[in-house]
Specification:
single chain; mainly alpha; 2 domains
């Protein structure tokens, strides 16, 4: 089965039908995210029995769109770069803060946000390299994770303002 997924994911035929799991692998997201895209009407699909199939071309279009980064997303990414510096410098402090923030955020959240908080909990409890990789990813998943990041308070207000000033003058804005 693993070989079949790899072969399908490495194909380039835009008309090829993919499972939601294969589409998720291409989008660096979860299978549920792909299902949600289908249910919202953001991703056309075909039913094969009771299973959704999506065209590779439609997934490629989403990937192309998701790689375009807005001004706000670039700003968020710069703040993430600075945050990652603090995480790497003192991982224990950063993960303790993240766990505390996650507890508070869960108390105040509903719906889709809870899913992202659960994913953050897995990342905080897992290998640090994986957390850093996803936090800095330009993928749709990375952008969604940054929108729900549990690192509030890791950067001081002064550090945050310096990062934003640097971002504005760097030409990245």
């Amino acid at each position: 089965m693993r070989t079949a997924v790899y072969d399908t994911v490495s194909s380039t035929d835009p008309e090829e039908l993919l499972t939601t799991g294969e589409a998720a692998a291409l989008l660096s997201s979860t299978r549920q995210h792909v299902v949600d895209l289908c249910e919202r009407g953001d991703l056309p699909f075909t039913l094969v029995g009771r299973h959704r199939r999506v065209r590779r071309g439609d997934i490629d279009a989403i990937r192309t769109r998701s790689e375009r980064v807005t001004r706000d997303q670039r700003r968020s990414l710069w703040l993430a770069y600075a945050t990652v510096g603090k995480i790497v410098a003192n991982p224990d402090k950063a993960m303790t803060l993240a766990r505390t923030n996650l507890d508070l955020m869960r108390e105040q959240s509903r719906g889709e946000t809870r899913r992202w908080l659960a994913e953050w909990q897995r990342l905080v409890d897992g290998p640090l390299d994986r957390l850093l990789e996803l936090y800095l990813s330009r993928s749709l998943r990375g952008r969604e994770l940054r929108q729900n990041a549990p690192f509030a308070g890791l950067l001081s207000d002064r550090e945050r303002q310096r990062v934003l000033a640097s971002w504005r003058t760097s030409g990245a804005a």
